[in-house]
Amino acid sequence: MFKFEILHRDKKTKARLGKIKTDHGEIETPAFVAVGTAASVKSLTPQEISQTGTQIFFVNTFHLHFRPGEKVIKKLGGVHKFMNWNGPIISDSGGFQVFSLAREKEINLVKISDRGVEFRSPWDGTKDFLTPEKSIAIQKDLGTDIILCLDDCTPYPVTHKKAEISLQRTHRWAQESLKAYKKLKSKQALYGIVQGSVFEDLRTVSTEFISSLPFAGIAIGGVSVGESKKEMKKVLDWVVPLLPENKPRHLLGVGEIDDIFTLVKAGIDTFDCVMPTRLGRMGHILTKFQIPNSKFQNFTYDVTKTKFAEDKQPLDPQCDCYVCRNFTRAYICHLFRSKELLAYRLATYHNLYFVNKLVFQIRQAIKENRLEELEKEWLG
Fold it and tell me: Is the pTM of this model over 0.90?
């Protein structure tokens, strides 16, 4: 039932308005994809996730494989029933988590080979081996709408030679993922992943190779592991013009406010980022307007500061979300300073709503051919 259609193209940029149809509903694009690692967008109920305007979110194959296990989730009716979410869900391959956790020394990465990755669980130390075939099988059991093939997430910085070796492994695993996908007769939408670090020749090779394979959509990886915003934009400029027009494009791990305009203008359809939820749990509140005498960086301020202890204003006076209509900065400051769990919930709710409302405005602007005007409104 997976289908993607382009409804309108912006006349001044490469931005496009579209719609992705899945068995669990439609996604209006461009769309922000929230991150729900363990089948949970931290602190929020599925109803609240929906109320924030979130259409789709990521679940993490690596984490769900270990806890509670894909067989348990399959037995209970799949991840949608497991967590009582009726909308679309996308799952990653688990590759990013294996490599990133290993580099942070949280797991013991035993061996990387052309067959897959051998490692030890960060929870109980048991040895496991993640292959392209196993990743596809796990995601099939989870029952998500969109799945990703296993890729070798290239680190940064990296030499051209090492990036090329990593790229060749990603391409090999893409082919193995497709074979496993066909063998298991999965009806999920399988996305391939473009890698190549910050090297134009490698990105070109990878884009052309992945685009030649029968994937339902294409994701762009390797732009959120330390690369600068300037390098991220260069990668998009190299990759996007070579991608098939009729397939959805997903950018992995990018989503700060200024990044959103960059990626949408480049022609990206969906993108994910932990930014709004992670910052929310830290007490960093998203707002469009600078608050007097308060540090304002990347559209955020820290509500946990003492100066907000008696502030009667909502988190964002221009926001109409449930939190801003019902609570003050003073109360939420109190919750954080008292380490009350409600603090994380309210801040996360607001931040997700804030990002989704911005993306809604972007969709409207594309439809009306005024995306650049909206960008100036936000970024100056």
Answer: yes
